[in-house]
């Protein structure tokens, strides 16, 4: 999806690496990452609304 990072928290080196990648993004890269994150969040919201509708329909 390109919206974030997924790594074990027991691996602090990966956490630092991710922070450095984010910090070193130029404005264009940041804008693209932000756009992907917002689109991903919108899709999650849409899915949660569908779940509520299904529960209401079948209750």
Describe the 3D structure.
This protein has helices at 12-23, 27-57. The chain has 59 residues and is mostly helical. The chain has one domain. The longest helix has 31 residues, at 27-57. The chain starts with 11 loop residues before the first helix and ends with a helix.
Please outline the helices and strands.
Elements: H1 12-23, H2 27-57
Helix content: over 70%
Tally the beta strands. Answer: 0
Distance between the termini: 34 Å
What is the alpha-carbon Rg in Å?
A: 17 Å
Mean residue pLDDT: 89
Enumerate the spans where pLDDT stays under 50 for 5 or more consecutive residues. none
Total count of helical runs of at least 4 residues: 2
The 3D shape can be described as: elongated
Strand residue content: under 5%
Question: Could you say how many structural domains there are in total?
Answer: 1
- Give, in order, the helices and strands: HH
Class of secondary structure makeup:
mainly alpha
Summarize the structure.
Helix content is 73%, strand content 0%.
Considering the chains and any ligands shown, give keywords for the structure.
mainly alpha, elongated, 2 helices, 59 residues
